[in-house]
Design brief:
Elements lengths: L1 H23 L22 H7 L3 H7 L17 H4 L4 H17 L1
Length: about 110
């Protein structure tokens, strides 16, 4: 069980590292692109929506550092990142903080 937990922690750590590298090296054309997933039971999601859905707090925090990120963009079902974060108070707080910061800077 401890080995499995260690593997999961490594994967999450690498995810943030890979995403940071992609961002820093301008490998992301449109961070707000809504992409469909392969199975019909899933929604079309942005990177931020997926990170919220998977409750990946550090990845959400990292994505929110991207200047062009839009936390209010909706997918074809009308759901935004907050919908996918509804079960995680920490992520909801990050999204709300980001919205407040952007509202005061405009």
């Amino acid at each position: 069980c401890r080995f499995f937990i260690a593997i999961i922690e490594i994967v999450y750590a690498l995810t943030s590292t890979v995403v940071r590298w992609l961002i820093d090296n301008d490998c992301v054309d449109n961070i707000n692109a809504v992409c469909g997933l392969a199975t019909p039971q899933t929604y079309d999601l942005t990177a931020l929506m997926l990170a919220c859905k998977k409750e990946h707090v550090e990845l959400v925090r990292l994505l929110l550092t991207i200047p062009d990120i839009d936390v209010d963009i909706c997918n074809s079902q009308g759901f935004n990142a907050s919908f996918f974060a509804e079960n995680n108070a920490e992520i909801l707080g990050l999204l709300e903080e980001h919205q407040r910061a952007n509202a005061t800077s405009e």
